[in-house]
């Protein structure tokens, strides 16, 4: 028996010449299995809005309670006609105070400068024809 025979040829050699007709001569490859997409586990979360109203929401976040400080109830873009939200600056993190301490109050919208006193902002000093 030659040592270079493969396992299928070796089995056919042991069983005789009739067994070689029973063994497959080509590979049989079935279709690959398409797996379902993984769906993450969703938690039930209690959303608390700024006015105190709450609702339940299914989300992937494991936090059981979410308290919103800025939402549709207190944002001026959602409530453009509300007078109590007009010109209100909420500086919870102190970022506006730090900006004003570093750069001054020249960027505030309440500060109005006279264009004749400041020549840079007047249209005549822009250097173009209007």
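-> sequence recovered:
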């Amino acid at each position: 028996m030659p040592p270079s025979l493969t396992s299928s040829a070796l089995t056919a050699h042991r069983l005789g010449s009739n067994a070689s007709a029973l063994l497959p001569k080509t590979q049989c490859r079935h279709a690959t299995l398409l797996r379902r997409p993984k769906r993450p586990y969703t938690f039930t979360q209690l959303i608390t809005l700024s006015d105190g109203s709450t609702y339940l929401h299914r989300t992937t976040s494991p936090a059981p309670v979410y308290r919103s400080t800025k939402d549709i109830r207190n944002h001026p873009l959602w409530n453009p006609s509300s007078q109590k939200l007009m010109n209100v600056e909420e500086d919870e993190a102190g970022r506006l105070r730090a900006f004003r301490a570093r750069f001054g109050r020249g960027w505030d919208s309440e500060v109005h400068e006279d264009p004749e006193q400041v020549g840079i902002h007047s249209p005549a000093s822009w250097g173009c024809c209007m």
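The CA atoms of residues 35 and 60 lie 22 Å apart.
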